[in-house]
Amino acid sequence: MSCGFEEDLTAYVDGELPPARRAEVEGHLGACAGCRATHALLRNAVARLAELPAFEPSANTRRAVMAKLDALPAPWWERLKALLRPAVLVPSVGLAAAVGVALLLVGPGADAPPELADPVMLELAANLELVEDYEVLGLDSAEDLEVVANLHELEVGQ
Amino acid sequence: MSVVDEDSDAQAMLKVAAGDRQAFAWLFDRYHASVARFAFRFVGDRERAEELTQDIFVKLYKNARAYKPTARFKTFLFRVATNHCLNEVRRGEYRVEHTSSETPEGEETGAVEMAGPEGDRPDQALAGRELERAVGAALGDMTERERAAFTMCRFEGMAYRDIAEALEASEAAVKSLIHRATLAVARRIEELQAGAAPARSRA
Q1: How far apart are the first and last CA of chain B?
Q2: Tens of pLDDT along A26-74?
Q3: Burial tier of B123 (Cβ tally within 10 Å: 0-12, 13-18, 19+)
Q4: Which residues contact A115 (CB under 8 A, 6 or more apart)?
Q5: CA of B45 vs chain A CAs: smallest distance (Å)
Q6: Closest CA to B167 of B84, B69, B88, B82
Q7: B residues 87-106 near A, CB within 8 Å?
Q8: The dihedral formed by the CA atoms of A143, A149, A150 and A152, expressed in degrees to the nearest 10
Q9: A107 vs chain B: nearest CA distance in angstroms?
Q10: Do residues A41 and B191 lie in contact, with contact meaning Cβ atoms separated by under 8 Å?
């Protein structure tokens, strides 16, 4: 059948057609026996599907999920926050300063270490942590990384 | 779903992103049955559906910071669920267990075995199992995207627009997917009814 209406019949049954197209389909159904038969077939199927028993997950599912959350490592931003606590950061900056002074005395080499307190370096460190997290989370394939990347794009009104 | 519900979902998800486990538990209680139904229809197996449901919610928790409050939460959740089910099936972690058209009649697959309500008459229970098997066979023969779109539409009552967002597809593409899938199921049910009619008339 190729009368140009068949593909709209399911959307018609589901109430998903705009009013103008809906009126066209209704007009066509009066004239096309083939589409009337398909329409009846689809309506019957949708009604029969409502007879199927609903799948109910076991009560264990919630407990299992919460246990898995308990076993997760702390996320990278919490680890970073912990690193930025004064108790950790101040000695680190002090150590960096000491290393910097030592390097100045010895003279800058080609492989001089970066300033630990440099915000750019901290951001880089945070990003490196994020990359590591993908592995921790089991996101080791290109597909998974793509999924995570695409999650950012989901916005209403697109 | 009302705007208030959508706002509550979005607010809860923002709290989850900040590490609030109570907010996560609230969202879990609201949506885990929906996700489980989706996973069950996707893979056709009860145990695997449970495992997939757990994985999907753990993934949701871990990726909570990727959620933007401008997105409808349910659409976001079903996008995570669809991607996870597709990845797992393609990776070979889960085989789709629906009885396909290639499965010899009467062969046990361990899939799609749900009892009807207690107290059903045996002939009603048999009819329910036959209907389940017919729908399962049609689901098994569908493409993954048809199965995902059909399941969201028929078992979750999601609008075409929301399904399109979840599948990252156009509404026209979703309309086409749902039509093909529904027609395939309708033909299976028609065959079932045609086969059952003589048996009923003999009874």
Answers
A1: 45
A2: 999 999 999 999 999 999 999 999 989 888 888 889 999 999 998 887 7
A3: exposed
A4: A96, A100, A121
A5: 10
A6: B82
A7: 87, 90-91
A8: 160
A9: 44
A10: no
Dump pLDDT digits (tens) for B55-89: 999 999 998 988 888 778 999 999 999 999 999 88
Secondary structure class of B139 (helix, strand, coil): helix
Contact B39, B82 (CB under 8 A): no
Burial class (CB in 10 A: 0-12, 13-18, 19+), B6: middle
Rounded to whole angstroms, the Cα distance separating B26 from A130 reads 27
Report the 3 state secondary structure along chain A: CCCCCHHHHHHHHCCCCCHHHHHHHHHHHHHCHHHHHHHHHHHHHHHHHCCCCCCCCCCHHHHHHHHHHHCCCCCHHHHHHHHCCHHHHHHHHHHHHHHHHHHHHHCCCCCCCCCCCCHHHHHHHHHHHHHHHHHHCCCCCHHHHHHHHHHCCCCCCC
Note whether A57 and B53 are within 8 A (CB). yes
Closest CA to B188 of A145, A157, A42, A112: A42
Distance (Å, rounded) from C-alpha B14 to C-alpha B11?
Answer: 5
CA distance B55 to chain A (A): 8
Residue A132 amino acid letter: E
**Is the overall model pTM greater than 0.90, yes or no?**
no
Nearest to A155 among B19, B61, B70 (CB): B70
CB contact under 8 A, A150 and B168: yes
Of B117, B160, B168, the CB nearest to A16: B160
Select from A53, A143, A154 the Cβ nearest to the Cβ of B165. A154
